[in-house]
Amino acid sequence: MSVKHAVSRGMELGRSVFQLGLLKPAARLAAKFRGERLRVGQPSRTVQPQTFLPARYRYYRMSLSGLAAQLQSGGFRRLVGGSPRNRVVFLAFGVGLGLIEQQFEDDRKSVAACQQIQAMFKKKKFETPLKSFVSGYKLEDYVIGKQIGKGCNAAVYEAAAPFAVPRESEKCSLVELKSNSNEQSASPQFPYPTIYPLAVKMMWNMGAGSSSEAILNSMSQELVPATPHALKQEGELSLNGHFGWVPKTVPAHPNVIRVYRAFTADVPLLPGAVEEYPDVLPTRLNPMGVGNNRTLFLVMKNYPCTLRQYLHVCTPARKDGTLMALQLLEGVDHLCRQGIAHRDLKSDNILLEFDSGGCPRLVITDFGCCLADKSCGLELPYNGRWVSRGGNACLMAPEVATATPGPGVVIDYSKADAWAVGSICYEIFGEPNPFYCPHGLEGRSYQETQLPTLPTNTPADVQLVVRLLLRRNPKKRPSARVAANMLHLSLWGRRALATLDRAKLSELADWLLCQSAFVLLNGRGPSGSSVEADLQRCFLSNIDLEDLRTAIGFLVYGQQLSSAVTL
Ligand SMILES: Nc1ncnc2c1ncn2[C@@H]1O[C@H](COP(=O)(O)OP(=O)(O)OP(=O)(O)O)[C@@H](O)[C@H]1O
């Protein structure tokens, strides 16, 4: 081997060691040099891309400082043995690492750029159409229309708020929910509810008693998506915690429902009550009923349909399907960041409307089963069978479905909702959810090889994301953030990605800056859709270099990911 050849091999080794995250084994290898022939070939080791990327700087620094120490102490000759060729290769290896120092600098710049981008987009809060209003805290403030939905815990009715009709001078009101016409477009199957722009959810109260405090205590999870003005501050219910236990609430997000008002009131006899839910009525309305006299009412925007209803009549196009999956991941990531797990994600609990270009916008709703405990975050102590693990048993992630209660047992929900999104993607792309009972796979026992393939028109990156989201082992499953980043990159960064697989982080920062500038200047997504614009804002306001790098790792090594990547 010529010196020139040895140098280039050493530098190449130094670089690839860095890029592949193999600094730790390389450091060990260097320590073993003496008397051994250096193999420049691929060391055989199984590495998960999500685990090797974040750790690399640590090993890199260890190796560099170890190398410097060896050189200074004169131990270099001892370390590499007498062969001049080995010394050259090893020195070149050091040069390769030195070049990486430069990359490390670039990294720091990229991290700084990311932080600036994040700060810029975090400042701009997602707006809720309802500004503070003094009315709407009583049932009498609303005109109630027909029933639009029913679940196991509540009936939902369309509603209008005559108090909120704007006078000449008043521009903002609940009515804006319907009059934002440039934001909403009608669909022939699901016309926009114009006469009744609101939806009132009447909870069925069978055990809580009729005091406001008891109702709030037992149904407090429903208030997680409530706006700060949803509850009357100085009235019977208060969000400041004086009345009962109040869970965390989530800041506004385009893919999470907003509850504009919440109040308790006597249960009224609404259309269809006697026929459809007589048992949960109070004896005042049905002598055989077991419901309490008062209950909780939640006021939201009235959406044209649920995701399930929409998918019943439409199969979204490839791009719309990807945007829909991405919105769910963004919504779930937002909840995770607030330490909230929804725990009942299913297509009935996702509402849908259309932006002006007809692109479906999804919002996650029904927080009745959520985990939003200030004390335990996303880790639920599972001491006994009486502890609720969440809603729909069919869509329980494996780590939740297989948990057995006992002292010290904790269920980690940090990736459970992301798993459910993976299963819902089948529905979005026109297939039945493989986990729906009674004949579906079971979360507790399925093998990943049993997962059906998605239809061939599903984008390859979406197929990869779904396969990863449905991994049994949550440690090998990407978080909602990483999965969302993968879809963002797939939708808008594929060209940039082609240059990123060499870990050129300065280019990554450039690309992010371009994205930010585009979103800031345009206020619309690449194809003019407000859904896309919101998604890009979500992406940029949550940007984190390590998460992004992990997403790139998954995409770049995606084809080899059936079990693990062998380097
Ligand atoms: N804001 C809304 N706009 C339009 N329809 C809605 C709205 N909220 C709920 N619905 C309809 O009402 C149905 C029941 O609502 P929801 O899921 O909140 O009730 P639930 O009793 O808590 O359900 P579950 O049985 O899942 O616990 C939904 O599936 C949907 O069809």
Automatic annotation (TrEMBL):
Residues 142-491 form the Protein kinase domain. GO terms for biological process: autophagy of mitochondrion; negative regulation of apoptotic process; positive regulation of mitochondrial fission; response to stress. It comes from the Eukaryota. Its EC number is 2.7.11.1. Its cofactor is Mg(2+). CDD domains: STKc_PINK1. GO terms for cellular component: cytosol; endoplasmic reticulum; mitochondrial inner membrane; mitochondrial outer membrane. The keyword Magnesium applies. It is found in: Cytoplasm, Cytosol; Mitochondrion inner membrane; Mitochondrion outer membrane. Upon mitochondrial depolarization, it forms a supercomplex with TOM and TIM23 complexes. PINK1-TOM-TIM23 supercomplex formation requires PINK1 interaction with TOMM20 and TOMM70 and is critical for PINK1 stabilization at the outer mitochondrial membrane, kinase activation and downstream mitophagy. Upon mitochondrial depolarization, interacts with TIMM23; the interaction is required for PINK1 accumulation at the outer mitochondrial membrane, kinase activation by autophosphorylation and PRKN recruitement to mitochondria. Interacts with PRKN. Interacts with FBXO7. This is Serine/threonine-protein kinase PINK1, mitochondrial. The lineage of its organism: Eukaryota, Metazoa, Chordata, Craniata, Vertebrata.
